From TrEMBL:
GO terms for molecular function: ATP binding. Keywords: ATP-binding, Nucleotide-binding. InterPro entries: Kinase-like_dom_sf, MAPK. Signal peptide: none annotated. This is Protein kinase domain-containing protein.
Length: 133
């Protein structure tokens, strides 16, 4: 499956889940094992979403239903959940693009946090400079 021209969720989901947990969500020992771990979360993809031009058939994986993402990422908020599930979409045509992911509201909240932290750090630094004078 790694030979498929569009990136599979095994490659695209890692950055999003790493942001959520600061550690890899899928610790597979091969591409096939990684896909199995992804399918543990999203369920086995539908037949129409499985690529035709790959050597690994869909039936090489056990059928399984999707599981709640909170089972794997307990502290995820709604925006993080939405982004991660969009990154995990198996079908590249249904998966969020990198551009759209960067514009996702999940990152808007992070930008506000960064601005608040920068503002706080700046005012703390100015306060320290005044106290030192």
């Amino acid at each position: 499956l790694a030979a498929v021209p569009s990136y599979l969720p095994v490659y695209t989901a890692q950055p999003a889940d790493t942001l959520a947990m600061y550690k890899p969500l899928f610790r597979g020992n091969s591409d096939v094992d990684q896909l199995g771990k992804i399918f543990d979360v999203i369920g086995l993809p539908e037949e129409e979403d499985w690529p035709n031009d790959v050597a690994l058939p869909r039936n090489a994986f056990a059928s399984r239903p999707a599981q709640p993402i909170e089972k794997f990422v307990p502290d995820i908020d709604e925006m993080g959940k939405d982004l991660l599930l969009k990154c995990l979409a198996f079908n590249p045509a249904k998966r969020i693009s990198a551009y759209a992911a960067l514009s996702h509201p999940y990152f808007h909240d992070l930008e506000k946090c960064k601005e608040n932290l920068d503002s706080h750090m700046s005012s703390s630094q100015n306060s320290s400079e005044v106290n030192a004078s």
